[in-house]
Amino acid sequence: MTVLRAFRPAILPLAAIVAGLTLAACSMGGGSGAAIALAPGLAARMDQPGASLDRAQAISMINAYRATNGLPALTPDAALDGTAQALANQYAQTGTPPRAPQELTVMKLSAGYATFAETFSGWRNSPADAVALKATATRAGVAVAFNPSSTYGVHWVLVLDD
């Protein structure tokens, strides 16, 4: 009993903090928690035939990151999506990172991550890639290619341009 009394003052403030954070998380999503939930398209596994990337959700995730760094949103660009897809397909088939076309401001590659959320987390946590996500570009394209016989299986390409 004396041991519990010794820790009780520390437990009460911690419990109050946890309760406050829980209430704050609920209120952010209008009580549904939607604001803190990961969008289904970002957690969809791309390591299977026929998987389809939700490009709009992927660019939205990048834009949320850019906003926290005081940067303007990127505009999704269908032509850049096509470029990214061609590069991702090449990457998946050859296993060799493709060269960025000279007209692109930034190209980010990744391989082996099954979901865009995992891929983005890898980019965000890598100092060199995080700098690229903050580039002065205004348009973006993103793509993924799956090749079950390649070393990494899933290959990701993000291209940014002005």
What do you see in this structure?
This protein has 162 residues and is of the alpha+beta class. Helices cover 49% and strands 15% of the residues. The chain contains six helices and four strands, in the order αααβαβααββ. It has a four-stranded mixed β-sheet, sandwiched between helices. The longest helix has 27 residues, at 2-28. The chain is globular. Residues 1-35 have low confidence and may be disordered.
Mind sketching the topology for me?
Blueprint: H1 2-28, H2 40-43, H3 55-68, E1 75-76, H4 78-94, E2 106-111, H5 116-125, H6 127-133, E3 139-146, E4 154-161
Parallel strand pairs: 1-3
Antiparallel strand pairs: 2-4, 3-4
Rg, please? 20 Å
Terminal Cα span = 67 Å
Mean pLDDT across the residues is 80
Number of strands: 4
Coarse shape:
globular
User: What's the helix count?
Assistant: 6
Question: In percent, how much strand structure appears in the residues?
Answer: 5-15%
- Low-pLDDT segments, ≥5 res: 1-35
Percent range for helical residues? 40-55%
H-E order: HHHEHEHHEE
